[in-house]
Amino acid sequence: MAGALDLAPRDLTTGRAGFIERAQSRGELFIEQPYELYSESNQRTWRRLYRALAGRWEKHAHPRFLDGVTRLALDPDRIPRLADINRFLEPLSGLVARAVSGYVPAYLFFDCLRRREFPTTITIRDGEWLDYLPEPDIFHDLAGHVPMHTDPAFADVLVRFGEAARTAARLARGGDCGQVESALKALARFFWFTIEFGLMRRPDGSGLCAYGSGLLSSAGEIVHALESPRVQRAPFQLEWVVNQGFEIDSLQPLLFVVDGFDRLEDEVRRLERWLRAGRLDNVAPGEPAVSREDLRSFLQAGSAGA
């Protein structure tokens, strides 16, 4: 392995990393982070992203996120090593970041959360497109997601969401693909409007702040979410959320506000109850589309006795 890395070009840019292509061709999903393959261009992209976000975090991020940045000792100048991240993270919440070679099928991703593992992309976006993210990268995952993972209450929300996904997989035992597809659409919408693009009331009651990783890893999105008059910021309503489509390639026009992490965990538990009761068997059509791979991951988990 070391010899292969020595011969590989130093580049882990999303979409053109040879190391990732070779891992995928071998069917390797969970991998090691080949830190020596990060180029100076990759490191420069991290620095530029971090500097673009740091001031916006101070103004708009949830205080627990800011506390997490400090606890993880994130380096503004260098891409973190996952081993260092986990050394700080695991004692705080029991979660660990686990490197992956690319897309993780939906059920496996959610089940990793249930087992307190966070699938983490190791490539970084092209430096020419700092605020455009066609797919997750290491800045989105480590700087956007993981600081919130240091908080035990938030970590428990992720675990609870993984349990809800397991409940959804059990629906697959009846063989009704439409029912499972509807449940998966509801789960994706809930995750999008909370973990990825969630807003929350500040603990001191002074206004709103961001806790969702899609906001916290995009300099443009976080300002748009909290300052633009074109954004509708609605109180969180589960029935609305699971029936609300979204688009991934434009600034979000609608976001949902929860009162706190206790309320968020309550909503995840209610989501799971609705799954069991069949209330998510026929949610509204629309985005996101459910891929065959994601649907298959739930059907296979259900048939295997998830």
Commentary on this structure:
With 306 residues, the protein is an alpha/beta fold. The protein has one domain (23-303): Phenylalanine Hydroxylase. 54% of the residues lie in helices and 8% in strands. The protein has helices spanning 2-7, 18-25, 40-60, 63-72, 82-93, 106-114, 138-149, 152-170, 177-196, 213-216, 219-227, 238-242, 261-277, 292-303; strands spanning 96-100, 117-121, 199-201, 208-210, 232-235, 254-258. The strands form two sheets. It has a four-stranded mixed beta sheet. The model has no long low-confidence stretch (mean pLDDT 93).
Q: Report the oligomer.
A: single chain
Helix content: 40-55%
Q: Quote the beta fraction.
A: 5-15%
Mean pLDDT score:
93
Taken together, the total number of domains comes to: 1
CATH homologous superfamily identity: Aromatic amino acid hydroxylase
Query: Element order, helices and strands?
Result: HHHHHEHEHHHEEHHEHEHH
CATH topology tier name? Phenylalanine Hydroxylase
Detail the topology: elements first, then pairings.
Blueprint: H1 2-7, H2 18-25, H3 40-60, H4 63-72, H5 82-93, E1 96-100, H6 106-114, E2 117-121, H7 138-149, H8 152-170, H9 177-196, E3 199-201, E4 208-210, H10 213-216, H11 219-227, E5 232-235, H12 238-242, E6 254-258, H13 261-277, H14 292-303
Parallel strand pairs: 1-2, 3-6, 5-6
Antiparallel strand pairs: 3-4
Nutshell version of this structure?
Helices cover 54% and strands 8% of the residues. It is of the alpha/beta class and 306 residues long. The longest helix is centred in the first third of the chain and has 21 residues, at 40-60.
